Input
Amino acid sequence: MTMNASPATFSGTAAMLMVGSDHSPQMNDRSITVLFPGGFTFANFVADVFTVFIFILWLWLFITVASDLFRRKDVSGWGKVLWVILLVILPYIGVFAYLLTQGRGMAERNQARSLEARDNLRQIVGFSAADEIEKLDRLKASGSISDQEYGRLRARVLQ
Output
């Protein structure tokens, strides 16, 4: 492989094309430009890793924002359309704008959904506070737990 005057341009074997009716490889004068002129260095590797990390972080935030946006019942369809247009046209600014303007509401809606899911799970599994307190009474009577542990666990059950 031969190098031209610019360190970022390579020509020769790397730029071979299949040309002609007999499909024999022939050299072409076109050159290939690489992203980093310094080649594959540690600094370029770190820059690539950082770029991938930022992209994955943005993708995670985008999915979080989109899922919150579409679960909301207090925003009209047109409001959702405007947010989606902002998220598509200006992705980074759109995600950060949504987080800044709706962040507190996102946390409250997320907490409400998790409490609702917990209550639904308890109902399906058959959890009841009375059953748990009865179990705690038996543990306290057998001496397996102290009075302090009993009080702390009973308060947690009643939450």
Notes: DSSP finds five helices and five strands in the chain.
